[in-house]
Amino acid sequence: NENYCIQRERNFELLEKKIHKIETADKAAIANSDNPQHPQILSSKETEDLFKIAFRNYNQLISVADSKAALLMNVNSIIITVVLGLILSKIDNNPYLLLPTIMLFAVCLATIFLSVLASRPQKNTFSENKNSHTYQKFFFGSFDLIDRSFQQATWNDYYGQLHELFTNTKESVYMELFKESFNVRKVLSRKFNYLSIAYWVFIIGLLVSVIVFVIRIKSNTFVN
Questions:
Q1: Alpha carbon of residue 10 to chain centroid
Q2: CB neighbours of residue 57 within 10 Å
């Protein structure tokens, strides 16, 4: 009681003030929603929650895209290894297998190449010039973006930019969130575009290669 009672009372008073402030804001929002001249808008907390949900979903989608790209690379690497071990040693005695083998190799290499493009880090969509009005000061998702200039950044510069950002108006902070959301969605668009092409190349190419294998084997059997 001697050490914590006074601070506990202060904490209770602070919580009551915050609760009263939230209730007042909710009542004002309800009143505005009933008035057609004042349409209801999101509160600061609702806006923050919306950004949290959006960025959490973005991160999950980036993880899904990377895992799918890794799966494609592993599968095609296994196919190439199997083809090298089983078919290439028999091509000398079975030259009719050369064409479908080359086709299968080309399909696997193209799929791996597209998967690598999908999983590689993406560039920043906005200008990297710090004096430009489109320069993005703070990267919330920089784990998946390239920021080459940050390698030469000093602590004072970084602290100065963040201090300027968070002591600025709320609209300026939201603008950085808008830029980051735009950046991450661009990253997702590129990743899933490459993945979509890679899956189609793999499915169609594998199907065509198998058909050519069957045709060549059948034709050689018929000739013999």
A1: 44
A2: 12
